[in-house]
Amino acid sequence: MAQSTTHRIIDDYKVQKLIGVGTSSNVFLARHRVTFKRVAIKVIKRLRLTKAEEEAVMSEIKFMETFNHKYIVKMFDSMVDTRYIYIIQEYCNGGNLLEYIHKHGRLSEQTCKQLLQQLATALKYMRSFNISHLDLKPDNIFLIKSETITIKLGDFGLSKVMTENTKNGYFCGSFIYMAPEMIIVKEFDIKADLWSIGVILYECLFEHTPYSISHTASIKKLFANIRKQNPIEIPSDIISPKCRDLLLGLLQHDPINRMNHKQFYIHPFIDLDHSASEESLSKGVKAAAMATHLQWESRFAESYISYIIALEYIIPYYKAEAEGTLKRVLKTQIESYIERIHQLKQLYLKPQITEWTEEYEVVQTLLQTTDQQLEKPRINPLNNLIFFIPDFNVSTDDEQSNYESTDEFTNDQTTEAQAANYQPAEAQAANSSEEPTVVTVRRIKRIKKWFINFIRLFKRRHD
């Protein structure tokens, strides 16, 4: 952390306005004088801090220097002088999650799922460093608004390094979101964060916390409600069974009965494996390439399933993350895959077959084998995707990658409707009224061209 004076702040940044006020700090919106990048500058008054509070600030800076993640507030610089501590960090233009709930009211289950997937991804990243947040609440979940909403987890002043076997006995966090064991036995482990996530999800869904109290009620009354450990009422008529099951698993008063981190990440409502991430998109592209390869080999049942797998990976990214040209490309690809699913179902697969257990296992084995091949050191998996597409000779010439000018990427209306209302592929095929058609050589060439352009675009974005 650099040692400096106020002059460096004034020299490098132009302060535009005050955007936040705390008991010992102010937050300013500023713009860098050279790059014009907007940042948030947190100015902390050292004279108002106790020794423990100043140590917490220094600890927060240390953690933020360590983190580099899409869903965590990025710190660009930090400075200390005799009067102030400065933290220059990413500016979040959407406020925080608490403000968002107050403005929009109860959030839809789909919105909650997207936000929670991002939060789970950030938490999983932190746990890779054995770090627990310990102050998770909507106030500390900031938002970036563009075409989609992206969360940024912040405020790591109470965070601690904790392994699975670590037990802590100090009092920390915000009472309403604090795990019961922190209050009752004053000892907790890494599962404390999971209780807080359960309270956050509950508040997003129902616009109040499980043990909400009025502004006039005392903290003593809140503690009394928590100590009673009365079952938390979770309405079943307005949320899905998966969402309810997740809440029940997170909001267990006894941490022994509470789900652990691994169970949280793989829970069907969270399903990180199919979240809107570049990793999932990469898996989807690979599955689609495998489907094309299997179709060329006349392994139609396996190809059919591989296309379904591809859509399950690609559609979440398309809905929540893709923007601009990439979104248009994905629309076209989704339309193409849905059409091929219809064709495979109608032309090549026996009508009486409704489950493809054996073929599904074959496809999964092929994909797992591919994963093992791609895990070689210093190899970008995207560079190996062409291996699965027969006779692909991808040129690096710029004139061959002008996909924006082709007809295939200009008609978005049909594709957007299909992708937005995606149903299980078997249901789509059953409802399809398309007449069986033969996949012509011209169509195959167009498919190849789409894939070449898509992979080239995605490689540039990924690199």
From TrEMBL:
SMART domains according to UniProt: S_TKc
Annotated binding of ATP, by residue: 42
MF GO annotations: ATP binding; protein serine/threonine kinase activity
A GO CC term attached to the entry: cytosol
InterPro entries recorded: Atg1-like (IPR045269), Kinase-like_dom_sf (IPR011009), MIT_dom_sf (IPR036181), Prot_kinase_dom (IPR000719), Protein_kinase_ATP_BS (IPR017441), Ser/Thr_kinase_AS (IPR008271)
Name of a matching Pfam family: Pkinase
Top enzyme category: transferase
Residue intervals of the Protein kinase domain: 13-270
Alphabetical UniProt keywords: ATP-binding, Cytoplasm, Kinase, Nucleotide-binding, Serine/threonine-protein kinase, Transferase
Coiled coil: none
PANTHER family xref list: SERINE/THREONINE-PROTEIN KINASE UNC-51-RELATED (PTHR24348), SERINE_THREONINE-PROTEIN KINASE ULK3 (PTHR24348:SF65)
Name of the protein in its database record: non-specific serine/threonine protein kinase
Gene, per the UniProt record: LOC112692173
